[in-house]
Design brief:
The complex is a heterodimer of chains A (102) and B (522).
Chain A (H helix, E strand, L loop, with lengths): L1 H21 L9 E2 L5 E2 L1 H7 L2 H23 L1 H11 L17
Antiparallel strand pairs in A: 1-2
Chain B lengths: L1 H9 L16 E2 L6 H5 L3 E2 L3 E6 L5 H12 L6 E5 L5 H8 L14 E5 L1 H6 L2 H15 L3 E5 L1 H12 L1 H17 L3 E7 L4 H4 L1 H5 L2 E10 L2 E11 L8 E7 L2 E5 L17 E2 L4 H6 L4 E2 L3 E6 L5 H14 L4 E5 L4 H10 L4 H7 L2 E5 L7 H15 L3 E5 L1 H7 L2 H4 L2 H14 L3 E7 L20 E10 L2 E11 L9 E6 L2 E4 L7 E2 L7 E2 L19
Parallel strand pairs in B: 3-7, 3-8, 4-5, 4-6, 6-7, 14-18, 14-19, 15-16, 15-17, 17-18
Antiparallel strand pairs in B: 1-2, 8-9, 9-10, 10-11, 12-13, 19-20, 20-21, 21-22, 23-24
Helix pairs in contact in B: 6-8, 7-8
The chains are: A mainly alpha (102), B alpha/beta (522).
Chain lengths: 102, 522
Amino acid sequence: MVTLMGNGGFRALLSRSLAVANAEVHWLRALHIKADGSLEGLEALHAQLDPDDFLEGRVVLLAQVLGLLVAFIGEKLTLRLVREVWPKVPLNDLELGNGGKQ
Amino acid sequence: MKKQQMTAKLKLPKQHVSKPANVTIHKLPTGVRGLDEILGGGLPEFSFNIIAGTPGCGKTTLAHQFAFANGTPKKPALYFTVLGEPVIKMLRYQQQFSFFDESKVGKGVRFINLSDVVLETDLNAVLEEIIKQVTAADAGVVVVDSFRTLARKASSDVGDVEVQSFMHRLAQFLTSWEATTFLVGEYVEEEVRDNPLFTMVDGIFWLSQVSERNSVVRKLQIIKLRGQATVPGLHTIRIGDAGVQAFSRTLGLIGNNTKPARRRRLSVGIPALDEMLGGGIVEGDSLLIAGPSGTGKSALATQFIAEGLRHGEPGIMAIFEERPEGYTQRAGSFGLNLKAAQQKGTLEALYLRPLDLSVDETMQEILDAIKRVGAKRLVIDSLVGFEMALAPGFRADFRESLYRMIGALTGAGITILSTVEVEDTFTALQFSHYAISFLTDDIVRLRYVEIDGQLRKVMVVIKMRGGNHSKDLREYVITNKGVVIIHPRRTDYNALSTGIPERTGPRRAQETEPAPEPKAMR
């Protein structure tokens, strides 16, 4: 993703996704995006949180990232990018429509 | 003696000395309709080019088209983005164009963001990164967008000499790597003289926007392209659903001269007018019908097209004033079934009246239609409407462009009938206020004449390049059969051409004529 968008571009996308996801999963508010695009505080929270809550937060954040991508570049292109990152993940059943706003 | 013989054997005759062949420069398709023709067949392989111009001219779109047209998974196109439009936005907008094939993204066309490298390191690191990516992907096409921002940033950091050195090394590497390159950048025209980048590159694609009054038209100029001859001048480009489309000034018709050596006479669908024309219009001629409003120019044009269809000659009607339905309805009232021909695909009516067209675009539409139906006859009704449909900036070039199109089409053996509205004055016979008579081979002038208390219509052949023609002024009417010439020339009047003739012969008995004139109406 950084190759495509640059570090700044990826951070901007992640920042927006995090802001939207915060409303749904409150523990995400404790996270900060570092200069390299990684999330500061994630490891510490992993140890503190219930595993299911932790997983839910990560899923919501990822859904927001993908939703934003769909809103910007469309479902087809987003799926193509996701396949490049996770070539083995079956994406046929994935519903990314409406820019992740469903 | 033996030695002499051997020497003689070694000295091969001149004509047998094999001459090393010149290098063949392969041409790549640009993916931009009309551009390959302007470039002289396509973009030279391994060339190092720049697409320059002001914002909003279509530079990025053109570069994308080239990348998508040539990038393959084996030899991908690498699209490096640098501090310009964010990639996510670029992808958002570019995918709206039909050339954008998302299945190619990441395989045949790969986007790589260089912004971080440019911001955080120096030009050497940028070059290294490009070399690394191009080498790893074995790229066949490289685009750097925007090169201007990269060069500007580097100039402020290290100075112009370093930037020049960077450009030189970049060009050297990419050419040696057998990559065809496009640098994309926002430049102004004055920079072409002073910026060494423009000297270094093999090709300069200059895009601009020309605005006049309320219309804006995009233009493309190939300022240089090493190794091949391009079509010179400013060419119109338009950004539509398919991306950038270019309209060559020559309309792609260079060398299309297929006019037969012995040309037939074609009927215009009015037997008496055929006689006046010396047997009909010469195949591949351009005939201008000039006359004021209501004299039957469109009716005559309809008969011309219908006559062609009757003889198996497909036709195109480029209509700029009336609606096509009006045309087919009128034809129907003359007993001419144009609808059937339209359904059969041997006739197309083009209704062109947007107000910001360029001449070249309009002509391209006509040419496309001609190709589609294999037209042998073309009607342009009317030249005044044609001119009105153009963006104001193109009206000044109208005659020149029309000259090019008519010349090219008649050269290809297509017979053209154009109409032009001419205001009648009652003191002289004006051919056309457009002074376009030189564009056409033949001119027929229609006009009103006051005779015996009636405003009647007469026609006369003014000019016929293909041979002799009648000098008669003939009266005609428009009936339910269309334009019909009704009388032999009149010898009982003088100065018919002024519209207010003088009686010189005896007054004939007046026939009772039903009013209104039995013009075709439904």
